[in-house]
Amino acid sequence: MSANDKPLLSVDGLQTSFYTEEGEVKAVNDVSYQIDRGERFAVVGESGAGKSVTSLSLMRLIDDPGRIKGGDVTFRSPSAVATLARKFPEGVATENSSGYIHVAELRAESGSVGDDPGATVRDRPKEVATELDDGSLHVEAGHVDVLDAPAEAMQELRGAEIAMIFQDPHTALNPVYTVGEQIAEAIRKHLDMGEKAARERAIDMLDRVGIPDPAERYSDYPHEFSGGMQQRAVIAIALSCDPSLIVADEPTTALDVTIEAQILDLLKDLSDDEDVAIQLITHDLGVVAELCDSVMVMYAGKPVERSSVEELYYDPKHPYTVGLMSSIPRIGDDRDRLETVPGTMPDLVQLPSGCSFHPRCPYAEDACIQHEPPLVDTETGEPIEEPDSDIHTAACLEYTGDLQDGVDFDVQIREDAAADGGESV
C-alpha cells in the first residue's frame, strides 16, 4: 500500500474514561476504525453507547473529569502535514517509511529550505512525495499523531482540517455575534485572510449551503435564522476552511423531516463534490441509509459490528444490531407493536462480565457470561488485524464457534428485499 492509499483517519484502541465519585466510567473502551478520503462513515447506537465521546476524543475536546487513557489517532492529510511541519518543526508531523522520519529533518536534508521556489528536493526518503509551491515544501505522504500533538497544533488542526458540526445549532452559534462574523473568524484564523477577503468567503459559504440573500444575511444574528438555516450556518462554519474530515454529531436531530432531507442532500453533495470525508454520529438508522457508505455499531463503549451500510441493513450479524433493525417501523407494517431491545444500557462503571450485551441478549449462553467476544470476520471467525469496512465484522461468540445452540435471526429488514433481489434475514 502506498502512502497516499492509506486511510485519511485511523483510530486504534482508543480509550476514554470519566472519573466520578462512583468510579471510572469507561465511555470509550478500545475503539478502532478507519475512514478513507471521501468516505461517509456512520457511528450508531443508543444514548450512552460512546458515540459522541469517541468523536470528541479524536478532536481532543475531552474536559475534566474525562481523560483520554490510550490509543492512537492518526490523521493523514497532505495540507495538515505541510502546515504543521512548517509551524511546528519539532516533529509534530511525520512520515512512517522505514522508521519515523521527521518532516523538519526531511526539509533540512533535502536542501529545499529557503526562498528559492526553484529549489529541488534531493535524497528524499522512499514513498515521500514532495513539491515546492512559492518556496514552501508540501508533503503529500505523511501523518499527524493527533493524541500526541501539542495543544497549539490541535488548534491549527481543528476547524481547518477536522471540522465538527455540533448537535444543537442554538448552542453552537454565539448569540452576540452575527452569523457572518462567526464564519469569517474561522477563515481569518486558519486561512490567514484579511477582513475583506474573509467577508467575501463567508458570504460565499452562506450561498454554498443554500442560504438565500447571503450578503444580507451575513449581518443577521443567530436568532434571526430558522432552525434549519442555523444548522446550515453551522455547516458553513465547518466548511469554511476546506476541511478533509467533517465530524457531524446528530446534525439533523432538532430538524423537521423536510429540513432534514435538505441537510442530508447538502452533506452528500459536499462529500461528492469536494471529496470530504464525513463521520456521522447518530441513532437514526434512516439517516445512515440515506447518507453513509459504511457503519460501526457501538454498545457500552465498544464496537459490536462494522460493515458496509448495505450489508448491515440486509444481513445484520450481531444480536444488538438485529434488535435495532427490528425496531424500525416500515410502511405497510402489520405488527401491532414495534419490537424493542429489552433492558437498558449497562452501568459503564461496572460492566457485566463477558459480553456486555448478554443481560439483554435473547441468545445468551453461559459462554457469553464467561468470555468477552472479540471483533471477528463473520465469515471466517478470525480476528482482524486492521479495521476494514469491506470486511463484515461482529463481536459475538456465534462467529468464533463458542456457542452451543447458536443464534437464529428472523427479522425482515425491508418489505421489498426479495423483490429487489436481496434477502430477508
Automatic annotation (TrEMBL):
Cellular location(s): Cell membrane
Example GO BP: peptide transport
GO cellular component: plasma membrane
Membrane topology: Peripheral membrane protein
GO molecular function, one term: ATP binding
Domain ABC transporter: 9-325
SUPFAM superfamilies reported for this sequence: P-loop containing nucleoside triphosphate hydrolases
Principal localisation: membrane
SMART domains documented for this protein: AAA
One family name in Pfam for this protein: ABC_tran
Name listed for the protein in its UniProt record: Peptide/nickel transport system ATP-binding protein
Organism: Halolamina pelagica
